[in-house]
Protein 1
Amino acid sequence: MRFTAGGNGTADFVITPTRAGTVSFILKVTYEDSNMNEIVKELPVSLNVIEQQWDFPDYPMTAETTDVDGEGGFPWIAVIIGGAVLIAAGVVVLVVVLRKKHKNGKKLTADDIDWEDELDDEDEKSDSDDKTKV
């Protein structure tokens, strides 16, 4: 660490003792004065080091939680029901497409399937059955 001539500054350092008890050492600081004379200062240091105290909490340190009231957790029922609905919808679409393919006797492409027309035809049937419409 360097300081400019005539200036001042600070230096930080960390001491990590490896045992408890009184630890004594000499801190040696070397610097040059304004006349370029090297000055060495020895500072005796005495530290009273105590053993680290471990405070254990009153609660368990595990990630496990107990489900006291029976609520919470992952909603497996919703996932299972949602998956069953998606599978049923896929089967219905597959059956409709296969019936239409079998009915026409040709291979269907994506352009051949017009879902809106099928839905519109069903709406027209129900509209014709409804005699209350003006």
Note: Strands lie at 21-32, 38-49.
Protein 2
Amino acid sequence: MDLMRHISLWSRPDRGVRARLARVTSDAPRLLLLDTASLYFRAFFGVPDSVRSPAGEPVNAVRGLLDFIARLVADYQPTHLACCWDNDWRPQWRVDLIPSYKAHRVVAEIPGPKPDIEEVPDPLEAQIPVIVEVLGAIGLAIVGADGYEADDVIGTLATGAGMPVDIVTGDRDLSQLVDETHPRSGCSTRHVGSATTNG
């Protein structure tokens, strides 16, 4: 299946992909792809829940994610950035292939085409819509595809980018995208939570 046909952008509908992957710096083209759920989960557990909005709601995941993004942009100076999204965190086609796929994270199975319900702490669940709103408000593209995980979106965008790509994730499975034979034009991964850097 051609995943690019299924990519949806959660941002302003009046702009195309290139406009929404707006230039961050003026250097040679370089794309930064974020495994957004991986980052906001880490932010949620890494930033104290005492970080709250003026109305008293927890915003530790929001703040932590924005801090991650600011630091990554400063460190890697991408010209383009996309927040890759899990439109389906446990795609049925993967479960059909491997029935135990992420089964340990299922709170409730949903019959039909809708995704099963993932175990997510309530205070984090409440912050996800805020994350979407804030990313859109600051002009960052949220890129997802129905029936696919962020990893699939990252793989599709990285292999078709036509420019060097940095991938930021907590998952090691994206290391398969690293192109060590062409390090200046290929992909590299930045693993959050460790000192490991490939590419």
Note: The first strand starts at residue 7 and ends at 9.
Protein 3
Amino acid sequence: MHRRSFVRLLAAAPLAGTFQNVSGIPALRVESQYAPAATPGMPGPYPGRVVSVKSEKCVDVSTGRADDAVVREMMARGMRALTGAGTTSDAWRRFFAPSDVVGIKVNCGGYPHCISAYEIVTETVRQLTGVGVPVSQIYVYERFQNQMARGGSVRGRGHAIEHHAARVANADEDRQHPEHEGPRRHRRHGVSEERRLR
């Protein structure tokens, strides 16, 4: 959508309520072969509630490295404050059950300056397994596989979880950054993308 069209829509928004539905279109009805979940995932049990957690010790400003233990404690405080649970495990159980299949969407496209924090992803996996979700049911994913390869992951951090991407590579990104031609180079040498990521 062009910017001018967007501005026109904004200008017309106040008039939207003055029009009546005279077309006779019936109300929307959802048709699905699946039964509604007993506990719907969205918008979640605490819609609109925000919890802020701060610590001056979470990042060493001289090195830029995050402190795993401090991040873990901050996430625990935040989850307990959000849910009102007495323990961190009980707080995570408000959202997850052992039967769940969990996908963790990470951001690796901004590597090396803006990516999902390893410490947060790792602690999320640790808490999920702590409430009984098997490692085989936890997936970390990103849009492009070459971004996952560059941006790193939680591999080597105690959890052999699956990593997936919707596409092998972003062709435009590879052209802009020829030094990041890893996926193509490894295919030429007969090494599969999955083996390279592991």
Note: The CA atoms of residues 8 and 81 lie 42 Å apart.
Protein 4
Amino acid sequence: MGHAVEAACRPFARSPSCPRVRARCVRCNDACRTGGSALADAKAIAGVRGVIARQCPCAAFGATNGLATVPGDYIPFAGSIGTCAAPKCDGTTPRIVDPATPNPAFPTFGDVSGGFEVVMAEGFAHVDAVTAEDDANNPIPAALVAFVMRNTQ
């Protein structure tokens, strides 16, 4: 079992009556995601993922000659996560501002206040932006640093 799954289960692993706080255990010594607590563990893990999706701001980085050639390529992901509840987000701006009829190539994303921003590197292929020089032609390093600084303070 992966470390991420074990880490997600760990907060639910201690209780005076049973190692699964949110489960009615059939066998209280069963492993995470097994036995009588498997369903409760799955629900707890889904809940943690939901909290992360709602509370974490996201940034997407693409390259116009790469795999995601326009910002609209990120519509499915942006539409799959809830409104950002992180302190740096305003809590009301959605990840996609016009979700009912987004422009397929250049939608309006929530940007900083909505917790979803997209930065495209014009003329780069998908790996070029990572390996290229950190200069004015490559907007990704500066955007990534700004995103990290804004969301870790």
Note: The chain is about 35% helix and 10% strand.
